[in-house]
Structure formats: structure tokens, C-alpha cells
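Friendly challenge for the regulars: who can give me the C-alpha cells for this chain first? No prize, just bragging rights.
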Amino acid sequence: MLTGACHCGAVRVTIPRKPRTVTDCNCSICRRYGVLWAYYRLPTVRVEAKRGTMESYAWGRKSLKFVRCKSCGCIVVWQPIKPREKSWMGVNYRNFALDLLNAVRIRKLDGAAWDGHTH
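First reply, four minutes later:
Bragging rights claimed.
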């Protein structure tokens, strides 16, 4: 198990293992957020925060919400708005220790060219 946190530490995320790769997407929102996504099944990720410390944003078809810390503004995860039994979520791997981040291969995704991009 690995645990990362937003800048101020108000939101913590625990994942089951180091990802094989992380995704650097250039879609309109990801390039602005500057995130690197690691993907996991919903039930395998634990997001811990005190009530009222997180807020979310959804855009376009409103199939995903991007969750961030209200205090420091760091993007923590994206989640499906209507999760299914085997839904995936994205975890912002930039919130984990630098040595963990440096040990993972970065995969480029041309989300800007993908019509109907929803991760």
C-alpha cells in the first residue's frame, strides 16, 4: 500500500501498489491541471479527508468528476459520476513521493485529438 497527499495534507489517497505506468494526457483539462494519472479499480483506492475538505468539478458530458482539496487546490482523483461494479478511477500520482514518481514510466495520451475524450 502506498499513500500520497495533497500539498497541505488535508486529503490522503492510498493505493494498493505502484502503477506500471502513469498517463500524461494533453486534453483540455488534464494539461491545465498538470496531472499524471495512475488508474485503479474504485474499490481498491481509499480517499481520506475530513468532511468539507474536498470539492469536485465536472464538465462536458458530466461522466467524470475531478476531485480536489478545497484548501490547497491540488487535484487528487477523478471518479465516474455514476460508478459501475468494475469502474476505474484516476489517481493523481504527482501527490506521491518524488522517488515513487521518478520510478514510473510516463505514457503520453493525445486526449486533445480524441473526440469525446472522457479518460
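The first helix runs from residue 30 to 33. The chain is about 10% helix and 40% strand. Your move, everyone else.
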